Amino acid sequence: MGSRADDADFVSRNASFDVAVATATVLVVDDEPGMRHFLSKALSGKCASVDVAEDTAKASEMLDARSYDVIILDNVMPLKTGLEWLLEQRDVGLLADVIVITAYADLETAIEAIRVGASDFILKPFRSNQVLNAISKCLAKSALEKQNSALRHELIEGKDLLRHRNSLIGSSEASEEVRRKIKSAAAIDANLVIHGETGLGKQVAARMLHHASNRNSAPFASLQCYGLTADELRDRLCGSLARATEGMLRYAEGGVIYFEDVEALDSAAQNVLLEWLSTGRFQPLGGTRSFSTNIRVVCSCTENLRSAVDAGRFHSDLFYLLNVHEIRLPPLRERPSDILEIVEVFNQSLSVKMGAVPLDLSPSAKRKLMSRRWPGNVMALKNTVERALILGSFAKALGDADPEATARLAAVEQRHILGVLEACKGNRAEAARRLGVARKTIDRKCQAWDL
Questions:
Q1: CB 76 within 8 A of CB 34
Q2: Which pLDDT does position 162 carry in this prediction?
Q3: Which of 185, 288, 274 is nearest to 241 (CA)?
Q4: What domains are there in the chain, each with its CATH number?
């Protein structure tokens, strides 16, 4: 186990040990009182909490009551080995990293430990620094897996990560007020609803809030609610043991989940969300144990949720759980001075992407841009700039072009989207990713084309 001098020397050389270790919750499972005492004393003060269990039955009870980041598990115990117990726990949904400790270094045991899902394998006798290093490695690996899961999810959803790292564009007083509200909401760790018309950048606002909050080192996960059934929502949130898929509630732990168009969920799907938010726990599909979560929820909607509740389309209990705090994004027609700033950003970025020359904005074009109501808001404005770059002038894109030119442009767009869909074998999510648009944009286009 190492001497007190060894342990004191390790602590003095590592006074600021891995920050992740300091936040870790650990469960020690060992039938030897001396080993339980040693590990408890060695880890207390360095980890957030350390609990001990004298056998696997007690450990199972403790796991039913709370979740742990890391389990330190002795293999040789009466009645049931640690590896036999670990295999049973993985079958019912154990998510924690497990470090197996044993005095027997045979190859067969090491192979079995890997097979049943042990994260590390430490031989007795060992020093406290070996255990701390093993915990640190487990937490680093877990953090990397969560980050990779979040990035894979972004690709599946067809989001352009760089696009959402930008702040909301516009220097009007209305835009500045939104930024102030985001900063204020970021300091309050409460669920939030962002509401506003289509095309305003509600996800951008959600990402700004995440970046400004104390959860910014944890994942930001987004989920488009449009068209999701209750079973699909449960699968995406909770994951499945049978398919070995990790749900959002696992990899977004400690961070933020953003539900886009939450009002689009049907009654059954709303109940799935309500169940999780009411209990703060979830159960992977195929598992028998539930797990607690620490996740902030941010939702967006184009319709005021209170109106949806009054109309009987949204569960009132779910409304009160989600709408602890709210931010309204004003439409472009309420902040016309932002329009030219947004146009210039798109003019520069899209011209580079399309290999075109940025266009000059004439006084007439500026007046037309600022006088329009822009029902599609920023997304409609972006489309107009893109059309202008294709047609060669803002005058043509703003309505001075002949109908045949407009029809030709629509045909070009349709051929391009259908070509990408064909290349993706009909996978709309992948097509949206390649095109750099939201999945629901592809769905709307296909519906308009009777596909």
A1: no
A2: 39
A3: 288
A4: 4-143 (3.40.50.2300), 159-330 (3.40.50.300), 333-448 (1.10.8.60)
Q: Which residues of 288-308 are buried (b: 16+ CB within 10 A; e: fewer)?
A: ebbbebebbbbbbbebbbeeb
363 Cβ contact partners less than 8 Å away, ≥ 6 residues apart: none
Q: How far is CA 19 from the centre of its chain?
A: 22
| Cβ–Cβ < 8 Å for 181, 291 | no
pLDDT at 153: 60
Confidence band (pLDDT; 50, 70, 90) for 407? low
Q: Model-level pTM?
A: 0.71
- The Cα 4–Cα 281 span in angstroms is 41
Is residue 74 over pLDDT 60?
A: yes
**Which has the higher per-residue pLDDT, 217 or 315?**
315
Residue 242 confidence (pLDDT) above 90: no
